[in-house]
Amino acid sequence: MKKTAIVSLFLFLLIIPLAACNQQANKEIKKVRVAEVTRSIFYAPQYVAIAKGFFKEEGLHVELATTWGGDKTMTTLLSGGADIALVGSETSIYVYSQGTNDPVINFAQLTQTDGTFLVSREKIENFTWDQLKGSTFLGQRKGGMPQMVGEFVLKKHGIDPHKDVKLIQNVDFANIANAFASGTGDFVQLFEPTASIFEQEGKGYIIASFGTESGHVPYTTFMTKQSFIRNNKDTIEKFTRAIYRAQQWVESHNAAEIAQAIQPYFKDTDLSIIEKVVDRYKSQGTYATNPILDKEEWNNLQNIMSEAGELPKHIDHKTLVDNSFAEKAMAK
């Protein structure tokens, strides 16, 4: 009887510190609400960071929500519905230009090229950009990065997007692919995996990459309000470190391995399509290999916005970009 009591007491004493450790571990997990502008293979490193446990190892639990559109994503961030937003850097410029005491700061870059492709209705063996002249071009939303890059590339090739083509840009982002499939337009600007799926189904043919044509830009970055950074520096540091680890993982692994890792986030897309899209993005250097958003990319972004007539005013790199967390993550 005494022996049983001693054993029970020993087990009880053993359980107490274990329970305390578990409680302490739970307290150290920090929830971070992230609003992504859309769900896209374009953002593969983000899903790798979640799937491979890089955020978890930093003591972060990422609660990911897809907010479908730059305006909605920024509204969610500004209203306190998210801690961090993954969206185009141009949105931070729009917010700052409207006047704010709490500007939105870009702290980690995820993608460094445009992610759209030019898709034709008919198969074209030897495509040249002047073949767009006189055609109907189904573009993206006015004021958004895809549309601004599209116009920038057309002008680069001597095409006036408002005179040389019939430009359609009043179709909602979510309905552009359906509009093209239904017969609207000779050419369309599409993201992946829709472009590859259309090609597979014979609905269209990928003939050019806007990302390759436009060069490096801070196309999609993680950003947050200045006040959040001020009050949560440790969280931003950990978040950026996890993203950098994911970027390095993506850089060092092949398309098949990356596709396998992110497949749970694209359950309705065939693994072969995911792999094809990842390979296409990797081959054109779309995924940033580190979170630094440099001055050259920032200025290229504003040049593209200016060409499209959408730049409210020029904003210095240091005003809306904070590379300190990226630099610290890379140093470690």
Automatic annotation (TrEMBL):
This protein's source sits in the domain of life called Bacteria
Q: Which UniProt keywords apply?
A: Signal
Pfam families linked to this entry: NMT1_2 (PF13379)
A GO cellular component annotation here is: periplasmic space
Per UniProt, subcellular location reads as:
Periplasm
Q: Which residues form the signal peptide?
A: 1-20
Q: Which PANTHER family match?
A: ALIPHATIC SULFONATES-BINDING PROTEIN-RELATED, TAURINE-BINDING PERIPLASMIC PROTEIN
Family named by the database record? Belongs to the bacterial solute-binding protein SsuA/TauA family.
* Name under which the protein is recorded: ABC transporter substrate-binding protein
What is the native source organism of this protein?
Answer: Parageobacillus thermoglucosidasius
